[in-house]
Amino acid sequence: MKLRFTLNGQEVTAEASPLDRLLDVLREQLGYVGTKEGCGEGECGACSVILNGKLVNSCLVPALQVRGGDVLTIEGLDGEEDALQKAFVEEGAVQCGFCIPGMVLAARALLSTNPNPTREEIKWALAGNLCRCTGYERIFRAVDKAAAEGYGRKIAAEKGRRDNVSEESVKLQGSEPSRVFLPDDLEEALEILERYPDVTLLSGCTDFYPDLMKGKPEPERVMDIWNLKELKGIKLEEGYMEIGSGTTFSEVASSDLVKEHFPALAYLSTLIGAVAIQNRATIGGNLVNGSAAADSPPLLFVLGAIAVLQSKRGVREIPVTELYSGYRKTVLRPDELLKSVKIPLPSVKSRQFFYKRGSRLALTISRLSVAGFIELDGEAVGDIRLAAGSMSPVPIFLTETEKYLRGKKLTEEVIDEARLIASEEVSPRTSKDYRKRVTGRLISRFLKGARS
């Protein structure tokens, strides 16, 4: 595949396999070795670059998705003249330097959209970039210093400065046209899916490359759906909100519509990895991958969400609760894809929540998750739905807890009994006592909040 894109303000051409990672193209094809490989799974941030204005992990971006794109690496900054890099040096924020290119670009991505961040905002923005020798305090001070000197305002004024990329930004070669598909719109994608039902769909790829690292075979055919406009966006329709399956979690988290109507979903979206992961991971991918540890399914279960599936034959809608037939298995037909998710708008009196617990406080895969929806009728429980995830092949409703709570006032005694019932409804295979106990406590926490 011959690939053209803008790199550090200049048009470049590279010969690459469609599934080569952007990281490999930069280092091996083009010789830009400032971008480092650490974990190869999107957890360390050493490979961070800015792609089309967004921070991404280049180890999780396929070369075919870079066509016509705009990439900024550490080599594209002004070196000693760059105020952010200068601040890192002056504050002693550099030692071995392995993590620093990604760290600097993560800081630049933050300051380009938030020129005057708080210390907590800096910590959050850099949470996906690990450093093993310098110590984070000096790094935070360096970002503070660059912000105080107006770095963010300066680079915001530079946005959009790039060479024009040729219209023909990718040329498939040899047998690639029969194995790699780059549709321009949803209609073309559905035609390809009908013709090749075994094709693997590529969007954010935040699970795709880690799965390959774990030994999953590389697919024979792939189709890129990352840029399909019909799969993007968030809109309100009569009685529900519709979220395109290709909408990223960073877009969900920042949506005013989602914050207003589904605050638990907005909050959940901030927990899907670090910023670079949220900029790539999509709500559709989180659903159809069928991982037991996926965060969005339990919440979408209790919110009564509907999965909109589409093929050349037409559209069908099914409850998200019926999307799974087993562990990592869905009821999607070979010629179908998930187009969007519809969520009924809740009443203003309702409350919703999502909690997760993992092996660490942040950027963690769920060891357990709990989601809930409640509507009180006066002081008594009216409608209530509770679900738990990460402890079974698919999320489960806590039906006995729901049954017990309906019609009751949320007294301390009732909440404590609900806690005990919930803890017995889950059947985790490992860490049983811990997961049961924490599930009950999280249900208790939600009910006390709903009561107040």
TrEMBL record:
UniProt-listed Gene3D superfamilies: 3.10.20.30, 3.30.465.10, [2Fe-2S]-binding domain, CO dehydrogenase flavoprotein, C-terminal domain, Uridine Diphospho-n-acetylenolpyruvylglucosamine Reductase, domain 2
Signal peptide feature range: none
Residues annotated as domain 2Fe-2S ferredoxin-type: 1-77
Keywords, in A-Z order: FAD, Flavoprotein, Iron, Metal-binding, Oxidoreductase
Pfam family, one: CO_deh_flav_C
Gene Ontology terms for molecular function: 2 iron, 2 sulfur cluster binding; FAD binding; iron ion binding; oxidoreductase activity
Residues covered by the FAD-binding PCMH-type domain: 173-348
Annotated SMART domains: CO_deh_flav_C
PANTHER family per record: XANTHINE DEHYDROGENASE
Protein name: Xanthine dehydrogenase small subunit
Organism, as annotated: Acetomicrobium thermoterrenum DSM 13490
Organism lineage: Bacteria, Thermotogati, Synergistota, Synergistia, Synergistales
